[in-house]
Automatic annotation (TrEMBL):
The keyword Iron-sulfur applies. One of its GO terms (molecular function) is hydro-lyase activity. The keyword Metal-binding applies. This is Benzoyl-CoA reductase/2-hydroxyglutaryl-CoA dehydratase subunit, BcrC/BadD/HgdB.
């Protein structure tokens, strides 16, 4: 099967039905043992230092791994993607644009997905067969999520990893499904994680993967990963068609729609606080203003840039925030 790169989660059902193997360029970038080389490639080719590291990493991953075709999401994701795909086209890479309609009207979303199917010459029937297969694997990821927030056995990083990977199923449906089943069996055998604070992680998946272990050492446990969970389509089983499934996907649409789901998860998971991660030079950082106004829960905003580990200042801010929450929890007793 031919590889096709993704700048973010898209209707992979269409691509798989068309005989492609989707490759999430974000995952390819951040899981590399030498992830900084991808940023260096972009900066050598003229990308400014004052640009989101994810965009530069995606570019470098695409060039370095000889990806010849990509799907670029030009509406509903990063505002810099349009410029990114123009540069990639200059490099001879074939780009297929896709949009999550800002209107968030079901008909507009259906129109975009139908256009996407026409580009790849696949029928709705073929796509729905693939969707049914993918949703079997997505159900397994819901099991890991429940082992995190209901049974307290999966840790925050595992919750993050096995949901974010559903953007492209690690390029192999069968192998990824087998991995999930084994992981679930192993996690079920553990004793519950006993931490006093239940945290939610919201915002784009982090450059700084060590944040999960760091908060565990401070008597806290991430039991919710917002965007990673959305990548796993936890409500896909309730959608009658692919159009409904991508209509009910909070990540690309307006903040109000996103907040409805956040409020539900804050209550269901009994969260004590939220860590809102934003990326340097990203427009989504402004959403922190709205979220703090609309969500009745303590929120700490932290920002990442090029480093894949927490810097000293961010560690200090996290420690102070969690200490304050622990003190408040103790005083309420």
């Amino acid at each position: 099967m031919k590889k096709i790169g993704l700048t973010t989660t898209v209707p992979v059902e269409v691509l798989i039905a068309a005989g492609y193997t989707p490759v999430d360029l974000n995952n390819l970038f951040i899981t590399s043992t030498d992830y900084l080389k991808y940023i260096d490639i972009a900066e050598r080719d003229g990308f400014p230092k004052s640009l989101c590291a994810w965009i530069k990493g995606i570019y470098g991953a695409c060039i370095e791994n000889d990806i010849k075709e990509i799907v670029g999401v030009i509406e509903g994701d990063c505002s810099n993607t349009k410029a990114l795909i123009e540069v990639l086209q200059l490099k001879g890479i074939k780009v297929y644009p896709f949009s999550f309609s800002h209107s968030h009207k079901r008909q507009d979303i259906e129109n975009e997905i139908r256009k996407f199917m026409d580009i790849f010459n696949v029928s709705l029937e073929e796509v729905e067969v693939v969707r049914e297969r993918l949703n079997e694997i997505r159900e397994l990821s819901k099991g890991i999520d429940e082992l995190t927030y209901v049974h307290n056995k999966a840790n925050g990083f595992e919750n993050h990893l096995y949901q974010v990977s559903l953007s492209d199923f690690n390029g192999d449906l069968g192998a990824f499904e087998a991995d999930l089943k084994k992981v679930i069996d192993d996690i079920k055998k553990r004793k519950p994680i006993n931490k006093k604070l239940r945290l939610g992680y919201i915002g784009v998946p982090p450059m700084t993967g060590d944040i999960y272990k760091f908060v565990e050492n401070l008597n806290a446990h991430f039991v919710y990963n917002e965007v990673q969970r959305e990548f796993a389509f936890p409500r896909a089983d309730k959608a009658l068609t692919i159009f409904e499934q991508y209509y009910d996907y909070t990540y690309p649409y307006d903040t109000e729609f996103r907040i409805m789901e956040l409020k539900k998860q804050i209550e269901d998971r009994k969260l004590d606080a939220i860590i809102h991660y934003t990326q340097a030079f990203c427009h989504r950082a402004v959403e922190d203003i709205v979220l703090k106004q609309k969500l009745d829960i303590p929120i700490l905003n932290i920002e990442g840039d090029k480093l894949n580990i927490l810097d000293a200042r961010t560690k200090l801010r996290l420690e102070a925030f969690l200490d304050m929450l622990l003190d408040l929890k103790e005083s309420k007793k």
